[in-house]
Amino acid sequence: MALNINLFFLIIIAILLLIFTQFKPLHVKEQSSKELSMIDIFEINIFKIDKNGVNTFLSGDVAKQYSDRYVVSNLKYTKNSTPKKQHLKAKFASYSKPLLKLKKDVLYSRDDNLKFLSQEAIYNEIDETLTTQNDFKVTKDDSWAKGKKLHYNNKKETISAKNFSANYNMENTK
Q: Would you place residue 60 in the very low, low, confident or very high pLDDT band (cuts 50, 70, 90)?
């Protein structure tokens, strides 16, 4: 029993029409363009040591390395290489040399009881400057200042700000 050539092509065309009308392509979910970290480290402690001992100490809950920066949650940073030891704490930090961008519950302090509080700040590691565009409060012993747009230079020990008010106690100054 031989199959007529016309019938053969008719069957092929019918199968192709059935495929085109009945089958639907699979919808593959697209990957989000969220940036992926190169390295993730949990409970991190970093000690930078030189001939005088521990120069810098950094700790955090989670640290992630990206191609252009490091991101740390619950940062604690101490710099011992200055005459007055500096401490930084923040819930979130992003480091791209030489800038350390801090967010949420930022606390900068020195061993001489100077403290700076804000919700965000940028610390320049080389210049030893701390800046913020938001509200801040600076305290030292019984004195305090609060305002906006702080620029603090640790090397020169200068503070400048806008819209600030202060209470300076002169009893303990020498």
A: very high
- 125 class by beta-carbon count within 10 Å (0-12 exposed, 13-18 middle, 19+ buried): middle
Find the farthest-apart pair of alpha carbons in the chain and give their distance in angstroms, rounded: 118
DSSP string, 26-93: --PPPPP-PPPPSEEEEEEEEEEEETTEEEEEEEEEEEEE-SS-EEEEEEEEEE-SSSS-EEEEEEEE
- Are 153 and 131 within 8 A, CB to CB? no
Coil, helix or strand at residue 9? helix
User: Which tens digit of pLDDT belongs to each residue from 162-172?
Assistant: 888 888 877 75
SS3 call for 111: coil
Q: 3-class SS at 25?
A: coil
What is the three-class DSSP state of 4? coil
Confidence tier at 70 by pLDDT (50, 70, 90)? very high
DSSP SS3 for 127: coil
Cβ neighbors of 74 (< 8 A, separation 6 or more) are 60, 61, 62, 91
Sign of the alpha-carbon torsion through 21, 27, 28, 31: positive
Q: Could you give the 3-state DSSP secondary structure of residue 13?
A: helix
